[in-house]
Amino acid sequence: MKETESTFLALINQHKAIIHKISKMYMKDLEEQRDLFQEIIMQLWKAYPSFKGKSKFSTWMYRVALNTALIYFKKDNRKVDKSPLDENIDIIDTDESELKEEKLAYLYKAVNELNSVEKALIFLFLENQSHKEIAENLGISEVNARVKLNRTKEKLQFIIKKNGYEF
Amino acid sequence: MVMNFDDLKKEWSADSGQEINISGNMLKIKQARTPIDIIRRKMKHEFNYQIAAIIILALFPYLFGLSDEMKMIYFVFYTIICGFTAYYFVKFFKFYKNAYDMSMDSRKNILWFYYEMKMNIELYKALTYIITFISVSFFAVYLVMEKTSIYSKIMTNISPIYLLINCFVSILIIGVITELWAWRYYGRYLKRLKKVVDELDYED
Question: How many Cβ atoms from other residues are within 10 Å of residue B102's Cβ?
């Protein structure tokens, strides 16, 4: 058991960015992101015995993590951070690494306006998945995945532009 | 600031989440918060109350001093309720223990959750209806047998049509209360899952 646990933890640590990004995409508030992060880890651990190594660990992980995020119910009694974007991010700072972080922060903020399936589509797209892989992960046809992804990208561009940025 | 998807992809890939620590403690945490886990916990909670209610119901004939004949009839009704509750308990136990597979594709996964939950909520509603109607039937028998004067007063003073309308309205009220209760307690979880399935299926 201990060995299984440490193997699992090593694998999770290698791919923790997946969970981290999904949590940030699906939850606005930091506390809620932590809760979802923990929930995904727990669901992965529960499902781990079913992982037979037929596919890559990351492929299996995408599914479990995304499925968890899609059906996750956040706790009701939690204050949600509704502060506007400008208060959280210093726009004037032009240092390159901070600019990159800033872009990602704006991306996450814009993604908040998407529905849960659109979030999944954008996530898989940013993870460099092909239309075929996106379709397989979500259980929809490849054509539908392509159409939905294009629409979601347009919607995301619109949201970012609406916030005053060039795209 | 100018953004485009290629840049975003690069920055996205560069975010490796190195600052996050994952320890073994995270595997031993809390209760899961998938809708099915939430519903299972709620149903388990309600089921405990049902068991307590059934135990208390067994004492009713003694508390209300029913006649021996009435006690026998009461326990016939009581046994039927216990039988239905036991059946529900077996089904609920299966639902409670049934493991789910989160590694299916999202559509299959959500549909599995949706129908599993829907079936169990319907079962829960059916049990509520059955118990209510058995209780009402017992009360009717009780009126006929033990409270003959009240029964005959009802039968002589109230027209059969009015009685039928009353029965119909009572059934309707029981139905509405059961549906509202189930919706308030469990409906929003189903609604949320249905919304995700609809979003996945939507094509125009």
Answer: 24
Give domain A1-82's CATH architecture: Orthogonal Bundle (1.10)
Look up the pTM and report it.
0.81
* Residue A48 DSSP class: G
Cα A146 to the chain's mean position, in Å? Answer: 19
In this complex, the residue of B7, B101, B196 whose CB is nearest that of residue A70 is B196
Selected from 3.40.50.300, 3.40.50.150, 1.20.1260.10, 1.10.10.10, the CATH number assigned to the domain covering A87-167 reads 1.10.10.10
* Total count of domains within chain B: 1
Per DSSP, B65 falls in state T
Residues 86-115 of B with CB under 8 A from A: 101-110, 113
Contact across the interface for B105 and A41, Cβ inside 8 Å: no
Q: What is the pLDDT of residues B71-87, one digit of tens each?
A: 999 999 999 999 999 99
Q: Model ipTM?
A: 0.80
